[in-house]
UniProtKB/TrEMBL annotation:
Record-linked Pfam families: HTH_5
Xref: PROSITE patterns: HTH_ARSR_2 (PS50987)
This protein's name: Transcriptional regulator
Residue ranges occupied by any HTH arsR-type domain in the UniProt entry: 1-85
Species of the source: Brevibacillus formosus
Protein origin, superkingdom: Bacteria
Keyword set, alphabetical order: DNA-binding, Transcription, Transcription regulation
SUPFAM superfamilies the record matches: Winged helix' DNA-binding domain
Organism taxonomic ancestry: Bacteria, Bacillati, Bacillota, Bacilli, Bacillales
GO molecular function, one term: DNA-binding transcription factor activity
Amino acid sequence: MSMNYAFKALSDPTRRKILDLLREKDMTAGEIADHFQMTKPSISHHLSLLKQAQMVYDERKGQNIYYSLNTTVFQDLLKWFIQFH
């Protein structure tokens, strides 16, 4: 995991809101988009950046793709922060 990608992903409020939504349950891009006043391609762009940062992963279930949190990355970020304590 690149810390630069992680911090870039976390720098945007929309992406942080997506992470909050996924904390509660796995969702499709359409379900995520329902929580925002923006186009689906914009949501796809945000999801792509979160995937690039390895903060979310996707899994095809039938015709739908579900997005989930990759909690391992958050554990790695916490370890990095804690070293400065």
